[in-house]
Design goal:
Layout lengths: L11 H9 L4 E12 L6 E12 L3 E5 L6 H8 L7 E6 L2 E2 H7 L3 E3 L11 H12 L4 H14 L15 H13 L5 E5 L7 H18 L2 E5 L3 H7 L2 E6 L4 E7 L14 H15 L2
Parallel strand pairs: 3-8, 3-9, 6-7, 7-8
Antiparallel strand pairs: 1-2, 1-4, 4-5, 9-10
Helix pairs in contact: 4-5, 4-6, 5-6
The protein binds adenosine-5'-diphosphate and magnesium ion (MG).
């Protein structure tokens, strides 16, 4: 069977290791529900979500529009308090965690300041926080621009960049806080197909370089399969987790994978899973 439930997804060796020392959870989502008051009825955006996201994993959340993906990311990052349940981050309440550390957040729209250069856009969060001296901030920003391969574009303005480059700026800005958790809400949804595929390999490289835990929301199955260790499939009305699937060949960062028969077949299985009632 190509799609295995999460608990069967590890190899026997991994199972032994995890029995001895369980994988440390970066994010624990416990019995989280979220309802919004509507005009006619209450919208059950999320019902009883339970999910453990281990450190340094790349997890995708997929599902149709309206199944609560963005709501779940906002709850994880404490932008929205859940109606029920709690989220713990590295064993702390998410409020306590945020006192010590920030989440990196990347949205579909790069949301850069048009009148600021690439350098200034990446520096802005650090400048607002008053983090480090100007010289230290400069070193850090140059290091981040190097990481996202935009070192030659520090003095450019957003309008002078392609969509993919703007998203790289947005990723560099999200990493300026030195987060260990990166939350991404359909970050490549507005990019053309070729740029999007390029960004997949870039993201895998950045994820490896920084040892991040990534939670990546998408409605693209192929994107989820190419990038993730595990894929959380959600269903709408009410928003809930339908299944957790392990990718067969996670993160080989090899474009040839897209034509691999097993990959194609896993994609077909996932598609069926999303469409079944
Ligand atoms: N602030 C809000 N007020 C009322 N309803 C909301 C709000 N945010 C989201 N919803 C509703 O919650 C459901 C889930 O939304 P969302 O998390 O944006 O889904 P997704 O990101 O999967 O498309 C939708 O029915 C949406 O209309
Ligand atoms: Mg959304």
């Amino acid at each position: 069977m190509l799609i295995k439930p999460a608990e069967e997804a590890f190899s026997p060796i991994e199972q032994t290791i995890s029995a001895i020392s369980p994988l440390r959870a970066a994010i624990e989502i416990r019995n989280v529900s979220m309802s919004f008051p509507g005009k006619r009825a209450t919208v059950e955006a999320l019902v009883d979500i339970n999910l453990n996201i281990p450190e340094n994993r790349f997890i995708s959340i997929i599902g149709r529009s309206g199944c609560g993906k963005s709501t779940l990311l906002r709850i994880i990052s404490n932008l929205l308090p859940p109606t029920k349940g709690e989220v713990r981050v590295h064993g702390l309440s998410s409020v306590e965690y945020q006192r010590r550390k920030k989440f990196g957040f990347v949205f579909q729209d790069a949301s850069l300041f048009a009148w600021k250069t690439v350098f200034q856009n990446v520096e802005l969060p650090l400048a607002i926080l008053g983090a480090g001296s100007p010289a230290e901030r400069r070193d850090k920003v140059l290091d981040l621009l190097d990481l996202v391969r935009l070192d030659a574009f520090a003095d450019h303005y957003p309008a002078q960049l392609s969509g993919g480059m703007r998203q790289r700026v947005s990723i560099a800005r999200a990493l300026s806080y030195e987060p260990d958790i990166l939350l991404m809400d359909e970050p490549f949804g507005a990019l053309d197909d070729l740029t999007r595929k390029e960004m997949h390999n870039e993201l895998i490289r950045i994820w490896n370089a920084r040892g991040l835990t990534v939670v990546f929301v998408t409605h693209s199955l192929s994107e989820a399969l190419y990038l993730s260790d595990q894929i959380v499939v959600m269903a709408p009305r009410p928003g809930r987790i339908k299944s957790i699937v392990s990718a067969l060949n996670p993160r080989v960062s090899d474009p040839a994978l897209r034509a691999n028969p097993e990959y194609v077949s896993q994609m077909r299985d996932l598609e069926a899973l999303i469409h079944e009632q």
